[in-house]
């Protein structure tokens, strides 16, 4: 009713937009597979469409409204990376005819991961050896100090007897 009243009075409503300028990206290695998950996330208004050009894999795209009234759009693509190939995600705001994209350089973003078992095989023995060395050093120091104090006591007794 209020909207109709505004229209009949000739008052125009302002339409706001917030561009999807900053696209946050993330690359995750999927454990136990040779696949990666590529994630694009951005905020803007109105709701944008997300596409992954030059891929035939379906993406999982979702959105939620933030407390500011913007849409937080997240799109996740899971695939096997191909050597020398880059991937990109595109946010298309149809109302503004605006396209924003982010490029994934998988060679630059993926770091070789050290298996956790290898870390355990290196770190645990290192700490055990370090602990043993500290115990031996403390024990030797204690013995040395006891010998030193016992000699001082003998020297004091011998000086008193003279």
From TrEMBL:
GO biological process: cell surface receptor signaling pathway; cellular response to lipopolysaccharide; immune response; negative regulation of T cell proliferation; positive regulation of T cell proliferation; T cell costimulation
Record's GO cellular component terms: external side of plasma membrane
Subcellular localization, as worded in the UniProt entry: Cell membrane
Highest taxon listed in the record's lineage: Eukaryota
PROSITE patterns cross-referenced by the UniProt entry: IG_LIKE (PS50835)
Signal peptide: 1-16
Transmembrane spans: 118-140
Membrane topology summary: Single-pass type I membrane protein
Primary localisation category: membrane
Keywords: Cell membrane, Disulfide bond, Glycoprotein, Immunoglobulin domain, Membrane, Receptor, Signal, Transmembrane, Transmembrane helix
Residue ranges annotated for the Ig-like domain, each copy included: 19-100
Methyltransferase is among the record's keywords: no
Record carries keyword Protein biosynthesis: no
Classification via PANTHER family: PROGRAMMED CELL DEATH 1 LIGAND 2 (PTHR25466:SF1), T-LYMPHOCYTE ACTIVATION ANTIGEN (PTHR25466)
Name the UniProt record assigns to this protein: Programmed cell death 1 ligand 2
């Amino acid at each position: 009713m209020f909207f109709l009243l505004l229209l009949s009075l000739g008052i125009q409503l302002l339409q706001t937009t917030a561009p999807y300028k900053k696209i946050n990206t993330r690359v995750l290695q999927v454990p136990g597979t040779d696949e990666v998950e590529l994630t694009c996330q951005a905020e803007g208004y109105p709701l944008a469409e997300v596409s992954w050009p030059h891929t035939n894999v379906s993406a999982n795209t979702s959105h939620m409204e933030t407390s500011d009234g913007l849409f937080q759009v997240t799109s996740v693509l899971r695939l096997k990376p191909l050597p020398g190939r880059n991937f990109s995600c595109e946010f298309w705001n149809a109302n503004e005819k605006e396209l924003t994209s982010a490029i994934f350089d998988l060679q630059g973003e993926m770091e070789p991961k050290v298996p956790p078992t290898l870390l355990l095989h290196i770190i645990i023995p290192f700490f055990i050896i370090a602990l043993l060395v500290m115990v031996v050093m403390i024990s030797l120091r204690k013995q040395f100090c006891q010998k030193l104090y016992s000699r001082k006591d003998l020297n004091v007794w011998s000086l008193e007897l003279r």
